[in-house]
Amino acid sequence: MPTLNGRSSSMPVVEALRVIADLCCGEQIIVTNQGSARIWPKLRRRSLDFHYNPSTMSGAIPLALGLALAQPRREVLAISGDGSLLMSMGSLVTVVASGATNLTVVLLDNGLYEVTGGQETPAARVAVDYAGLARAAGFPTAAEFRDLAEWQARAADVLTLPGPRFIRLVVSAAPSEYLTGSTPPLAEQLAGLRTALSK
Known about the structure:
Elements: H1 13-23, E1 29-32, H2 35-43, E2 49-51, H3 60-70, E3 76-81, H4 82-86, H5 90-98, E4 103-109, E5 112-113, E6 119-120, H6 130-137, E7 141-145, H7 148-158, E8 165-170, H8 186-197
Parallel strand pairs: 1-2, 1-3, 3-4, 4-8, 7-8
Antiparallel strand pairs: 5-6
């Protein structure tokens, strides 16, 4: 595959997500979507990890925002792909306008529509400054990482900065074995999430 613009250096996506999995506290809600919804369950399984239907592109951030507003005492983290965000850039403005500060948006940027066959996104060969867009939308914290060692060293601090937070991780494509499985059944997930949120 040719080198995509702005992605000459990137980190392995599974290891990038493992950093978050290792840092997330017990009461934090995690919402994944698309590729991350297939990877995350292989890293960690618990009731507060909600893997939104992989066919619902751009759904992770709005769903996570709703949970952040409904559960203001919990931290909520949405993991979205760049293809999904491109379909709903206005969600960044909506997050800021909502006033929610307990939300972190993690963007996995690999320049691909990964779960539909690996087609390049419209931004694959354009130097899109996603963190700059988040700052322009009003995010008080917007950061970018493309080196795994730097992400591992700084993730804990960045995740405690004022929210809402936006973190762009420039990542490589997921290994194929992580994309072949399905997400846990939605009904099962919803039942577990409702029970966990009621405690």
